[in-house]
Design brief:
Layout lengths: L4 H12 L5 E2 L6 E2 L2 H12 L4 E2 L6 E2 L2 H11 L5 E2 L8 E2 L2 H11 L5 E2 L6 E2 L2 H12 L4 E2 L6 E2 L2 H12 L4 E2 L6 E2 L2 H12 L1
């Protein structure tokens, strides 16, 4: 699935019609995006155009450099996200070490942010947030979503379905979260 008609047309032109605006001087690779070509050519030449300003590290891709800076030169405090653990660290690698030692059940750790998970599938779903890939399209409007769950939640705004009902006052909600929040008024 493609998020825009432009992306679909680009795919058809480059993959199916074998036409593209930019082509690699070293092989038959071609693309419509100059940034994709630059990254591809760097793989041939080994040119590391993205350099860290705080150490000697260099990378072919900007996102790889961003990840390096986040992991090794982050000044902010990172907090463990596991349940009620309140331990904080100055670097992400320190946090990952803590998770491995103190929360072995959280063995699947995101390599971009401090989140960790007990299941590989949960980590895979989480990683979609970082890739910003939006393959789930609303049939009523132009919005696209990272997960099918987010799309399902959004569809309720179009259909008006209210499946979550308050057992105290009978008020209905489209999302369980809204019902849970509402229930607080009855417990005060």
């Amino acid at each position: 699935m493609f998020t825009t008609r432009k992306n679909l047309n680009s795919h058809i032109r480059t993959v199916h019609e074998k036409q593209a605006r930019h082509s690699c001087p070293y092989c038959k690779y071609c693309t419509d995006h100059r940034s994709n070509l630059a990254r591809h050519v760097a793989a041939h030449t080994g040119e590391m155009q993205y350099k860290c300003t705080q150490c000697d590290y260099a990378a072919v891709e900007k996102k790889t450099l961003t990840l390096h800076v986040y992991r090794h030169h982050t000044n902010k405090t990172v907090k463990c996200t596991y349940k009620k653990c309140c331990v904080k660290f100055s670097t992400v690698p320190e946090l990952h070490q803590h998770i491995r030692e103190d929360h072995p059940q959280q063995k699947y750790v995101c390599n971009v942010c401090p989140m960790s998970f007990g299941e590989q599938s949960w980590l895979n779903t989480h990683k979609l947030i970082h890739s910003n890939t939006r393959n789930f399209h609303c049939i009523y409007c132009d919005k696209c979503f990272i997960t099918s769950r987010n799309l399902s939640r959004h569809l309720l705004t179009h259909t008006g379905a209210r499946e979550h009902k308050c057992t105290v006052c009978g008020k209905e909600f489209s999302q369980r979260y809204h019902l849970t929040t509402h229930m607080r008024i009855h417990t005060v």
